[in-house]
Specification:
The protein is of the alpha/beta class. The protein folds into two domains: 26-169 and 353-368, 3-Layer(aba) Sandwich (Rossmann fold), CATH 3.40.50; 176-347, CDP-glycerol glycerophosphotransferase, C-terminal domain (Rossmann fold, 3-Layer(aba) Sandwich), CATH 3.40.50. The protein contains twelve helices and 14 strands. It has a six-stranded parallel sheet with strand order 2-1-3-4-5-6. The chain has a six-stranded parallel sheet with strand order 11-10-7-12-13-14. A two-stranded antiparallel ribbon has the order 8-9. Strand 4 (101-104), helix 4 and strand 5 form a beta-alpha-beta unit. Helix 1 (2-22) packs parallel to helix 3 (68-76) and helix 2 packs across helix 12 (355-368). The protein is globular, with a radius of gyration of 22 Å. The termini are far apart.
Amino acid sequence: MKTVIKKLYNAFLRLVEIFSRLLPLKDSVLFFSIRAEGHLLENSKCVYDALDEKKDVFAHCMPLSAKLRPVAINKLLTHKVIVTDDFLPLLRDIKLRPEQKVFQIWHAGGAFKKMGFDAPSSLNPLYGMNDTVHSQYDDVTVTAEGCREAFSTAFNLPLSKIHAYGLPRTDKLLNPNVLKNMRDGVLQRNPYLKNKKIYLYCPTFREDGAKRVFFDPKIDFEKLNNELSDDEVFIIRRHPTVKYTFFDRQYDRIIDLTGSESTLDLMSVASLLVTDYSSCIIEGSVLRLPMLFYCPDIKTYERGFYLSYPDDLPGEMITDPEKLLSHIRSAVSDRRTDKEEKFRRLQTAACDGNSTERIVNIIKSWLHG
């Protein structure tokens, strides 16, 4: 019975696709995201807000429900321009119309961790050279000229489709007034952070094959809390997909703000960024934050890198949790500005405060071309 229902449903989806192709294309932009439920993430939101054109939003996490899938197919085939910030599995099954254009604003900046065709075992073992998920992009933005080659191989696209327009969400980090408002907002919501040295810890998720797995940072939080001075605070901002916490009690100087503050907002007040393999180092670089890379599992971390890790990082890498605080303090007081500048030149040179404007102009040219 289930097999019959599935066949009928697939036939229905095919009819939706056929019908959608017969409809006239709308002179509008569809912002299609699978990374959040009901709202756009920062990159797409920046472009959406700046685009003074007809526009629509479809933002739903995968997998799509039986009710939403036909809606998604219809929307994908009836808008002249599609803007996305992640891979769209539906593009495996649907060939877009020749007049349509797709702009990819990848959610992670820089050429850092390997992805797509360069990391099939980590992202999707079903990827193959005939996969059409990425092949239908017309333009992809990256954060620097030096990142184009990595995105070209990751998406199996010619270099001519990869451009260093920058990352829209970094624009506000380079606007003094906006950045001040971000800082003031965080301190107003969290007054205990005022006049503190804020060490922001942003570890990314871990995976084994294609499965997300638990990560133990191996930090003795009790000891760390006792060793932090009165003017220091250790703030944790977990990756959005990491739903578990690293401890189950309250500390005076260690606070997890994952559910209440965004990474960018917290970066605006941070004295230093502690991370591991997270692409948040791109925003950290734009903000010129000192960085420390705490990687207790570097020998078992399964994802490869486009850069030479850790030699090309804009800061020191350590593995010993016992030395975490001492290295945090030294990273703030004794910065490696030469490594920071080299990293900015190779990874974030196109993030100059005008990324959103450049992308909006491309989209407008497609709409009115």
